[in-house]
Amino acid sequence: MSIKTNLHTIKESLPDHVTLVAVSKTKSQDDIMEAYNSGQRVFGENKIQEMAQKWEALPKDIEWHMIGHVQRNKVKYMAEFVSLIHGVDSLKLLQEINKQAKNVNRTIPCLLQMHIAEEDTKFGLDKTELTALINSEAFKALHNIKVIGLMGMATYTSDENQIRKEFKFLKSSFDDLQRSLPDISVVSMGMSGDYKIAMEERSTMVRIGSSIFGARNYSH
């Protein structure tokens, strides 16, 4: 199956209000251009340097999403161009993004990452940490970032009930957060293996790599 065919099949299955982030980490510029030429404009990378190289080389109307864990010392390399940073899980990281955004005269959209899985390997805030962060004076002082929603990754399991329960928790956390931040609109949850469940649980953004580009170099 070609990238174009895979992309078309997935897009057919997504409602209009769900944004598809094509996860292009480790993929070649040719692969990305095949998806681009099939109409895809939103791509997700998990390494800042790799994303910056692709941004330099590829069409400038691509929206680059940073979907991996972000190291604070690397933020400056993407501040100029990144469209959305998904995995923001601390005030310190928000402050660094704010600082670098200010340096390039931008406001950078961010998603706060919640820890919804039962695995210790996933990053993210718990409900208490999220509430404390949003209500802190330090957060309110950040004028060059804009939190537009939440992101979370479900446990890597074949147990659909478990995955569904975790997605429900993320969506209810989003609903609660909307009372404090009425402008938020994004619930980023769902990857190649579980995006259909995520959509049933009202995801508005899915991150799909292997189902578009094939399983080469794919690591969960």
Please, could you describe this protein's structure?
The protein is of the alpha/beta class and 220 residues long. The protein is built from nine helices and eight strands. It has an eight-stranded parallel β-sheet with strand order 7-6-5-4-3-2-1-8. Helix 2 links the parallel strand 1 and strand 2. The longest helix is centred in the last third of the chain and has 21 residues. The radius of gyration is 17 Å and the shape is globular. The model has no long low-confidence stretch (mean pLDDT 94).
Features:
220 residues; eight-stranded parallel β-sheet; single chain
Concise description?
By secondary structure, this protein is an alpha/beta fold. 40% of the residues lie in helices and 18% in strands. The protein is globular.
Query: How much strand content do the residues show?
Result: 15-25%
Please, what is the average pLDDT?
94
Strand order of the largest sheet: 7-6-5-4-3-2-1-8
Radius of gyration: 17 Å
Coarse shape: globular
- How many runs of DSSP E, i.e. beta strands? 8
Structural class of the secondary elements?
Answer: alpha/beta
Number of helices: 9
- Spans of at least 5 consecutive residues with low confidence: none
Q: How would you sum up the major sheet?
A: 8 strands, parallel
What share of the residues lie within helices? 25-40%
Q: Give the H and E element order.
A: HEHEHEEHEHHEHEHEH
